[in-house]
Amino acid sequence: MTKIISVINNKGGTGKTTTVLNLGAALQRRRKKVLLIDLDSQGNLTSSFAIEVPKVSIGEVLVDGVPVQEAVQKVDKISLIPSRADLLDFETRLANEPGREFMLREILEPLQQSYDYILIDCPPSLGILSINSLVAADQFLVPMQAENFAFIGLDRILQVTDKVRKRMNNQLELAGILFVKLNPRTKFCQAVVKSITDDVRVGKKMFDTYIRQDIALMESAAFHKTVFDYAPKSHGSEDYAHLAKEILKANE
């Protein structure tokens, strides 16, 4: 059965795209069929696959009724539904659609039997596109850095996801909080991690895996590669491999 995971944070630079790209690659390396969806108008996930301007993007599928299969591109062994800069225009049009929050769920139905995992790279906001991802998802994963305002962002995400669960998708659950770019040796990082771990709303939904600071993660995307292809012996490669293993075990 397909597991759909929304990778979400209402702030930019938190490692959403890096996580979708490399978690997807790690799952594929464990013989899972993986589809990635770029739901961000910045198109960083799409660019990571060296796709310049896709002819068919997620926007046409959501709003214009283009069959979802026409948007899927196969890159090596991973499938991708790309984005373009004009996704913002499609988002405006989407806001006028009846049942607009359910559009992504509807278009993904024909793909349910084709993939083991569908990972969605959300925009850095909690607007209509992010809500669509949560309505379509089984789980949401929150990548975040151990920094001053992490609590504020997490609080907002938990409020919104709780409303989505109550009103539109009662199956939605928190897959986990994933700390990225982490330096666990600093006292500040340790304090942030402890405070969020102690949050009763999060409970035990903290991944044992954390993503260490690693320049290879930034460089690999710039060279249109996953970290496994670019630096297979790096910390980033090791950490995302562990994350995939943890997610697979939780979904057994």
Features:
single chain; 252 residues; alpha/beta; Rossmann fold; 7 strands; globular
Description:
This protein is of the alpha/beta class and 252 residues long. It has a single domain (3-250), classed as 3-Layer(aba) Sandwich (Rossmann fold), CATH 3.40.50.300. The protein has helices spanning 16-29, 44-48, 58-63, 87-94, 103-108, 128-136, 150-167, 187-197, 215-222, 227-230, 235-250; strands at 3-7, 34-38, 73-75, 78-81, 117-121, 139-144, 173-179. Strands 3-4-2-5-1-6-7 form a seven-stranded mixed β-sheet, with helices on both faces. α1 crosses α11 (235-250). The longest helix is centred in the middle third of the chain and has 18 residues, at 150-167. It is globular. The chain starts with a strand and ends with a helix.
